[in-house]
Every structure is written in C-alpha cells, then in structure tokens.
Amino acid sequence: MRVRLGTIIWTLLVLGGASLVGQVVRVLSVDVTDSPPTDQTTSYHNTTTSLDATLGTEDNNLMWFMQISDLHLSVFHDPSRATEFRKFASITTATIRPAVVLASGDLTDAKKVDMLGSQQYIEEWATYSDVLRNSGVLNLTVWLDIRGNHDNFNVPSLNSPNNYYQKYSVQGQNHPRSYLHTHTRGSLSVSFIAVDACLLPGPRRPFNFIGMVAPAEMDLLQELKVEASRRSNNTIWFGHYPTSCILAPKPGVRQVVGGHDSLAYLCGHLHTLGGLVYNMYTRQHTGALELELADWKDERVFRVAAIDHGLFSFTDVQHNTWPVILVTNPKHALFTMQHREPLHLTSHSTHIRVLLWSLSAITKARVRLDNSPNWLPLTHIEGPLYVAKWTPNLYSTGLHTLEVYAEDRSGRVQTVTQPFSLDGSQPSFRFWPRALLMSNVSMFFQFLFGIMVCLCVVPLCFVRYIHRLVLEQRRVRPKMRMWLGDLWMRKMWVLASVDRLFWPLVISAAYMPIGPWFIGEVLEGHVGVVFAWGTFVNSSYLPGSLTYGYGFFQMLTFHWPLMLAIAHCADFRFHSLFVDREYSFPRYLCRHLCPLILVTIQMITAYFFWLAYGTMALVLGPLRTWSAFLGLFLWYQATTLPRSAFRETAVVWTEPNKWVGSDQVTATSEL
C-alpha cells in the first residue's frame, strides 16, 4: 500500500505535538518530584517547634518581614514613585515593624528620557539612598537589597564607576553580589539568602533581561546554603529574577534555592506582565514556593510574610491599604508545603492566629469559618498578634473558608477570605503563573525562534523541491481542495521558482541563527558583537537568551510577512505578464502597501537600535538596518521582474492559449 507524503507529514506533526504537550504538562505540574530525606518524614529541619507544640496564644516562634520590588526610581518619569517610596519607608515600615525588609532589585530605572536608551544615573541612586537614610527605616529594621537588571544597565564590571549599587545601596559595600543574612528573634532563626543573577558585564538594554548565575556564583550559593543550614532553622531565598529567567550550570538555580531546608524563593522582575497576570505564585517540583511580587513602579504593591512556628504565610498589599491582615494559622491551603512545614500543628492548634496592622488602633477584629453567621472575636495578645479559640476537629476533611474582618479607629475596614484544609486538600495554582515561573524562558524563546526560522525556510525549499519534480515530470502539480489554499500555493510557488527572490529570502532567514546581528556599543565605550546565541563584549561571553525572543519577533513581524508580501507581489507581476487580467486600484494598492508598511516599521526599529546602541549598530546592523534594505530590494525586484524570470513558473502554472502578447508561440517554443 502506498503511503502519501501528506499522511507521513501529518503523522509526524501529531506525534510531535503530543510529545510537546506531554513535556508542557510535565513542566507545569506542581507535583513534588524531589523526595524528602528519610530523616524528614516525621521531623522538620525548618522549625525549632517540637512535634507536640501547640499553636495557641503565645507570640514566641513568630517573625514577620516585608518585601518590595521594582522601584524604578527615575529622574525623568513619575516622581510619585519616589514620594510614595518615602512614605513606605517612613510610615508603612514603622507601622508594621518587620524584622527584615527585602528590596529585590530594579531599585532604579536607568532609562533615558526617550525610554529606549539606558545608563546609570547617580541622581536616581542618590534618591534611593536619601530615602533610606532620612526616613529612619534603617534604625527600625534590617534592609536587605539586591541588584536587578536595571541596576546593571551599562555596568562593565563590579568595580566600574558606573556600579552605583556598591556605594548607594545598603548592602552593596559589604556584599557586591550574593550574600547571606541570618536574623534571630527569640528561639526562631531565619536565614535570608540574596541571589544576584545580574549579567557580568551588564549590557545596555534591551539585551539585558535574562539573568545568569556563573559557575563561581553557583559555588558561592551552595556555600551560603550550607552556612544557612548551620545557622538557622528556616531559609528564605530572594532575588530579582524568577528562576525561569535565570541561566545557570547544573544542577540549576531551582535545585539550589529549592533545597529541603528552604521555604520560598521571593522575586520580582515580571511586572505582572504589563497587567496581564497578577498573583504569580507556584510551587516548584522541589516542593518550595516561588512567589513573584508585583512591581512598585506601577502597581505600588509590597509583601508582608511571616513564619509562625515554622508555618510560612504571606499577603501582597496595595500601598496605603489599611488594615493589613495576615492569617498564619490555619494558613492558606494553596501554599501548604508537605515535608517543609509542621502542618500537623494546625490540626492540634487551639487558636486561629492573625496578624493585624493599621495606622491607628484596631477597634474591631473578628473571624468566621465557612460563612457561618456566628463571628468569633479576635483577641489582641501582643504586637500585631490576634487570636480566636477554635475547634479544628470540626474541619478535619476537605477545603474550608476563613474570613477575617478588621476595622481601625479611623474607620478603615478590610476583609480577607482564604481557603484552608487540615487533610492536605489544596486548590490549584493558576495556569499562567505556573507557565511563567516553572518554564525555562530561554529555552522557550529558542523553541519559538527555531520554529519561525523553519517556517521561513522549509516551506520555500519544499515548494522549490516539488517544483523541480514537476518540471522533470516526475509528479504532477498538486492542487489544494480549497481555493484559498490553492491561491497561496501558487503565490509561494512563484516565489520559490524565481532565483533572485528565493535565495535572498532563504539566505537571510538562515543567517539569523548563525551570523552576527549587529556590531555596536553594547556597553558605553566597549564595542560588542551580538549573535542570536550570545554576545561578545568587554572580553566576556554572555550566552543568548532574550536574543532568541527578539529574533522570534523579528521573524514573526518582518521576515515571515515579508515573504508573504513578496510572494503576492511576484504573483501579481507574473499574472500581469502571462495572464490577460486587469487589476483594480485597491488590489494594486495592496500590492505595494504591505511591503511599504513592513519596511517602514523596520526603519523605525532600526532607529530605536540607534538610540540604544549608537551609530555603529545602525550601520553594522544586519538584524534591523540591512533587513530594511533587503525588503526594499526584494520589493523592487518582485514588481519589476522581466518575463524571462518566470520561464519555469509559466511551464507549471499557465496554458499557452492563456498567455498574453504577440510572442506566444515564441514563448511556447522557448519554454
């Protein structure tokens, strides 16, 4: 039995698609794949609480801290970022009085007034330093800051004069990169490990989005991890980049920050994906939580987290929202971590435990379970701790809800509702947060880039191969069932059969993953060469990451539509020469409008490249500038092709009696 080529192709596509779906499901699964050590199945390294301890009214073994991320303090844009940050440092922090504040990167904006160029501005760093030192926050708490990619724009080295982080940050003078801080309150010790994944050297934007942990930095993180286990009972990791945005040698940064003594990795960087995805939380395969925090820049959000007898809880709060409510027992069911927390303590607890803060005294505080009409009063114990007696046995199976109501003396009211369970029942993490935090962004971009390169090369080559078979009379010209499919097959056939169009398109697309994209000042005063697979600058090599995503969008928005536009133009020219057909003005306009739009957009992006990397990048820029000229060249060629360029095409797609011109017989004999 003869198997058709189309059947084979569709079978391969189905198998490949099924395999891809399987890989995606495996990556995004929140099932814990790392088994706990044998000595942790009945005990917990993460807590000093004994197995028979009771969660009641005591306030020992309780610590709370805060996180703020992506401040983007700017000398050009939105001065309210700084004024609100000053209120946060002087008022909010003084009200909550955390043991530690984590500032997880992008402390400054480092963008020029045009929002395209980038450099470090000492005024932005001076503002950051001034707020911290004049607000009094450094006298109230421990401020742990770390760099983000914006703090690393145009920074050639750690010792560079442009590295203002070392001078103006709180931790930069003593800890230029990753570091460890251990905080103790009573019998509870918590280690905070800062992960610096900034590129070294730090290029100017836009190719400074993905972080990287070099082998030496990975060794340091392993050492800090061991030291943290020796010093404390609980470990909190924090950094700017989500683990999905960090390149690292094996075993990978997720395995390091997700060790069995770790509770969570706290990060920022993604800015709610421009307001599309809020509450980016997940549980990694290691069993530890990864929690991305919305930015301060636009969202004005900060995080309050607590460790209560080894149970980790948190809430993300809009600034100037009071009272702030954080339930620590029973904790939110979505964020429970088996083998990392003493979850059995909740089943044996005597009291619901809630932390409340406000600018004025709390006057009303109550809690109810499963929407009961009967509210339980919350009694103030000490500091922010409020408790209410409960009977956990009544809620031993399934998911339940807990609602807290709080009101302060000024009449401000807040209500928080969250699920809890005592038997391990859990709701599901949402898909998009899991996709963004559990994937590998660099590999994802590589995959998309590879797909687009194939789409721009393989179809043309395949059609050209079929064209040769038809010319050699080894097969008949295929015909699509739908007229639209047949129409575009003819357009692509015309394009693939004309050498002066086919080869420039194929070579330019194949060049994208191989050749340099541009040569320019990747760092101010340092000429670099950028490829899809990496960047060479300042005697260093930076592996490709965001470059693949950039290449994908270049292929998607220029090369692929240019190929279709040139195919349409060439087909238009072919019919005007060989088929007796007149075209209306709208169709004539469409013939020229599409290439014109594509080339214009490409010229605009080339201008953006000039703003980002200078004149050299504009002139020596195959990615943007040369591609625009390629588009102009192909546009001109497709609209002015001579009759002789279509000789082979005419053999396949025309009949002699349909040809135009007095030289039909001559043309027939020639073809």
UniProtKB/TrEMBL annotation:
<dbReference type="Pfam" id="PF24394">
    <property type="entry name" value="TMEM62_C"/>
</dbReference>
<keyword id="KW-0812">Transmembrane</keyword>
<keyword id="KW-1133">Transmembrane helix</keyword>
<feature type="transmembrane region" description="Helical">
    <location>
        <begin position="616"/>
        <end position="636"/>
    </location>
</feature>
<dbReference type="GO" id="GO:0016787">
    <property type="term" value="F:hydrolase activity"/>
</dbReference>
<feature type="domain" description="TMEM62 C-terminal">
    <location>
        <begin position="447"/>
        <end position="572"/>
    </location>
</feature>
<dbReference type="InterPro" id="IPR004843">
    <property type="entry name" value="Calcineurin-like_PHP"/>
</dbReference>
<keyword id="KW-0732">Signal</keyword>
<feature type="transmembrane region" description="Helical">
    <location>
        <begin position="548"/>
        <end position="567"/>
    </location>
</feature>
<protein>
    <recommendedName>
        <fullName>Transmembrane protein 62</fullName>
    </recommendedName>
</protein>
<dbReference type="InterPro" id="IPR056230">
    <property type="entry name" value="TMEM62_C"/>
</dbReference>
<feature type="transmembrane region" description="Helical">
    <location>
        <begin position="492"/>
        <end position="514"/>
    </location>
</feature>
<feature type="transmembrane region" description="Helical">
    <location>
        <begin position="588"/>
        <end position="610"/>
    </location>
</feature>
<dbReference type="InterPro" id="IPR056229">
    <property type="entry name" value="Ig_TMM62"/>
</dbReference>
<feature type="transmembrane region" description="Helical">
    <location>
        <begin position="443"/>
        <end position="471"/>
    </location>
</feature>
<feature type="domain" description="Calcineurin-like phosphoesterase">
    <location>
        <begin position="63"/>
        <end position="261"/>
    </location>
</feature>
<dbReference type="Pfam" id="PF00149">
    <property type="entry name" value="Metallophos"/>
</dbReference>
<feature type="signal peptide">
    <location>
        <begin position="1"/>
        <end position="29"/>
    </location>
</feature>
<keyword id="KW-0472">Membrane</keyword>
<dbReference type="Pfam" id="PF24384">
    <property type="entry name" value="Ig_TMM62"/>
</dbReference>
<dbReference type="InterPro" id="IPR029052">
    <property type="entry name" value="Metallo-depent_PP-like"/>
</dbReference>
<feature type="domain" description="TMEM62 Ig-like">
    <location>
        <begin position="320"/>
        <end position="425"/>
    </location>
</feature>
<dbReference type="InterPro" id="IPR041871">
    <property type="entry name" value="MPP_TMEM62"/>
</dbReference>
